[in-house]
Automatic annotation (TrEMBL):
Tagged with keyword Cell wall biogenesis/degradation: no
Matching Pfam families: AAA_lid_14, HTH_8, Response_reg, Sigma54_activat
Boundaries of every Sigma-54 factor interaction domain copy: 144-373
Keywords: ATP-binding, DNA-binding, Nucleotide-binding, Phosphoprotein, Transcription, Transcription regulation
Organism: Chishuiella changwenlii
Domain (Response regulatory): residue spans on this chain: 7-126
Descriptive protein name: DNA-binding transcriptional response regulator, NtrC family, contains REC, AAA-type ATPase, and a Fis-type DNA-binding domains
Length: 446
């Protein structure tokens, strides 16, 4: 039988489970890696392209609370967010297993496992992993959809800077594509074959800041059960992207500055320093210059991270890119939800181009995802996109246009009569048939 090209990592402290798992799975899948010591997980993940992890929730005999499994699950998903994790558990810890599903595990399996069930779960997980990877690949291939003049200015700078090791600060509102730009700088740099580590400092609890970034030694604090590398070490040789840099509290800025300057980190609970080689990219939606003036952001850190700065334009400043981005996301999500590419009519496209996209590309992306899920008869409507009958626009170039006035009137009366066609037609003094024709003409969905 031809084996499936996939790499499965089995993690369990019991050798007999590892052997049984390997024997069963190696008949069907190309590569099976086993690991009895969870401390080795980060290294294995960074060195191999793992499709599926099959992991025990309890590593120490006598401990059935599953906490270590939860800890390692979070670590795996931080390092490799697309890897699919299946947990193995005993009856006692089903609750924790269910909790782990919320954290991102795709399923759990009761021990002793049923061979066929395990194989089916792994096959399904491989499919899911392939799909997730495919989406990222399509995304990366065509990343930086859009050739507006304001984006051309951005490319001009990033093309020059990508190949250097200069620190880059990316400015811009939420959802403008700062993270995507950081990734693309890395992809075009000499470090592209190494790790790109994205750290969202805005989401990082202040107490976890140091341990997450610099790592820690076993026993450094109550929950420090094993030596753990931090994000800077994980980025060694590659790029570290510190998102929302403006959110770092002042007292931690000095530590960060030191690491950036010396390219050395000291893990929490250790005294020896370790050399790390990284390229630094940062991003913020706050006005750092102002924060410096107000004494909220260290000036020396600001100058250190700001060798080159690039401003991502708002989507409203790159209107030419709206339609290409829209088609791009339609393709991505139609692919994700296994649907045919739906149509979208000219009138809606026109309205979308004049809409004020305050949530920028992320808003556009979210609306398209919603529309793909809700679309009927292969047609995207404004309602599918989460709008009422027509879009509020700050560029109402059509407000003097008779058609637009008529359309607005119809929408207003329809809303007033809760979508009742007979009452709306009566109120407007036209027949129901005529109202239907107008609804179709103006693409008003009821
Ligand atoms: N030019 C682009 N082409 C295709 N997709 C893009 C482009 N720019 C951004 N995106 C997508 O739009 C979404 C928002 O982008 P991103 O997360 O990079 O924004 P951000 O500025 O970092 O947002 P935040 O400040 O909220 O973290 C992402 O899913 C990203 O992949």
């Amino acid at each position: 039988m031809k084996k499936t090209q996939a790499t499965i990592l089995i993690i369990d402290d019991q050798e007999e489970i590892l052997i049984a798992g390997k024997l069963l799975l190696k008949r069907l899948f190309e590569t099976i890696i086993t690991c009895s010591n969870p401390k080795n997980i980060p290294e294995i993940l960074l060195e191999n392209e793992i499709d599926v992890v099959l992991m025990d929730m309890n590593f120490r005999t006598g401990y059935e609370d599953g906490k270590e499994g939860v800890f390692w699950l979070k670590e795996i998903l931080l390092l490799k967010p697309k890897t699919k994790v299946i947990l193995m558990t005993s009856y006692g810890s089903v609750e924790t297993a269910v909790e782990s599903l919320k954290l991102g595990a795709i399923d759990y399996l009761l021990k002793p496992w049923d061979n066929q069930k395990l194989i089916d779960l792994i096959k399904d997980a491989i499919k899911q992993h392939r799909k997730a990877k495919q989406i990222v690949e399509v995304k990366e291939k065509s990343l930086f959809v859009g050739r507006s003049s304001s984006m051309e200015k951005v490319y001009k700078i990033t093309d020059k800077v990508a190949k250097t090791d200069a620190n880059v600060l990316i400015l811009g509102e939420n959802g403008t594509g700062k993270s995507a730009l950081a990734k693309s700088i890395h992809e075009n740099s000499n470090r592209k074959t190494e790790q790109f580590i994205h750290v969202d400092l805005g989401a990082l609890n202040e107490n976890l800041f140091e341990s997450e970034l610099f790592g820690y030694a076993k026993g450094a604090f109550t929950d420090a059960k094993q030596d753990t590398i931090g994000r800077f070490e994980a980025a060694n040789g590659g790029t570290i992207f510190l998102d929302e840099i403006g959110n770092i509290p002042l007292h931690l800025q000095a530590k960060l500055l030191q690491v950036i300057q010396n390219k050395e980190i000291i893990r929490l609970g250790e005294s020896k320093s370790r050399k790390v080689d990284f390229r630094l990219i940062t991003a913020t939606n706050t006005n750092l210059e102002k924060a410096v003036e107000q004494g909220l952001f260290r000036e020396d850190l600001y100058y250190r991270i700001n060798a080159i700065s690039v401003k991502m334009p708002n989507l409203n400043e790159r209107k030419e890119d709206i339609i290409p981005l829209l088609h791009y996301f339609i393709e991505i999500y139609a692919n994700k939800y296994e649907m045919d590419i739906p149509n979208i009519n000219e009138e809606i496209l026109n309205q979308l181009q004049h809409y004020e996209w305050n949530g920028n590309i992320r808003e556009l992306q979210n609306r398209v995802e919603r529309a793909i899920i809700l679309a009927e008869n292969d047609e995207i409507t404004l309602e599918n996109l989460g709008f009422d009958y027509f879009l509020p626009s700050t560029h109402s170039k059509n407000t003097n246009n008779l058609n637009e006035i008529e359309k607005q009137k119809i929408v207003e009366r329809l809303l007033f009569f809760d979508g009742n066609i007979t009452k709306t037609a009566e109120d407007l003094g036209i027949s129901r048939a005529s109202l239907y024709r107008k609804l179709e003409k103006y693409n008003i969905s009821n």
